[in-house]
tRNA pseudouridine synthase B (Actinacidiphila alni), 298 residues
Amino acid sequence: MTRTTAPSGLVVVDKPGGLTSHGVVSRMRRLAGTRRVGHAGTLDPMATGVLIIGVEKATRLLGHLALTEKEYVATVRLGQSTVTDDAEGEVTSSADASGVTRDRIDAGIAALTGPIQQVPSKVSAIKVNGVRSYTRVREGEEFELAARPVTVSSFTVQDVRPAPADAPGAVDLDVTVVCSSGTYIRALARDLGAGLGVGGHLTALRRTRVGPYGLDGARTLEQLEESFAVLPIENAAAAAFPRWDVDAEQARLLANGVRIKAPALAAGPTAVFGPDGRFLALVEEKDGQVKIVAVFPE
């Protein structure tokens, strides 16, 4: 199906495996009937789950969304390291992990929980002197990435089991992770395996939540093909930001860029709604006055 008029709003997509985030955007452009489509929070092709898509005016909302906390379910394989730290890369080393005890696994996970310094996977989109890290890897360049501060709020083992027969001696861990934006789950798998002395990589990854948006509100591409719909921009803004309802005069002043006295606003952007319920702008408090971050005219 193809739409001739695209409404402004967000679409929470349940991304399938094997498709890039940009590939999802391309599909959504066709479904929405507009090129004004963008995404927030890239997922690797192997990964599935929540991908936030903005359509029309909501593309301007993406950069302001408080998508700082993310939740994943994943499978970590202990006993094998790969060049990409996940199942898409060539195995570079193998070890027998069958003797690794649960106590050691728990201790290794504890060391990777909380505020940590994490070195991203080299096969990532991080830029080094303006060039993507994965491009440098493909060109055979030798380099090191700097560690970055991230926060792993929780890292929990749900199950421990032997890996399939094609990975003798390896052990699979089903885990759940809640972490800050910028955390690489495959780097957690790599570092857990390295700390246990047996190597590790990620074999499955599913993102279950990004900020306030979860799988319960996500739709597959097949569902969107059957019935395309967006989360209206008003609903999306109300879910992601503190809300401030203004009267007609305040709405008029804000629309004209006039700085008005601010109420006690929460830190960070606040969504402003007019008396008719329409989403008008994102604002912040500065020196007791309202600073406009972005406006969303009709």
About this structure: Residues 241-295 form a domain with the Archaeosine Trna-guanine Transglycosylase; Chain: A, domain 4 fold (CATH 2.30.130.10). The radius of gyration is 22 Å.
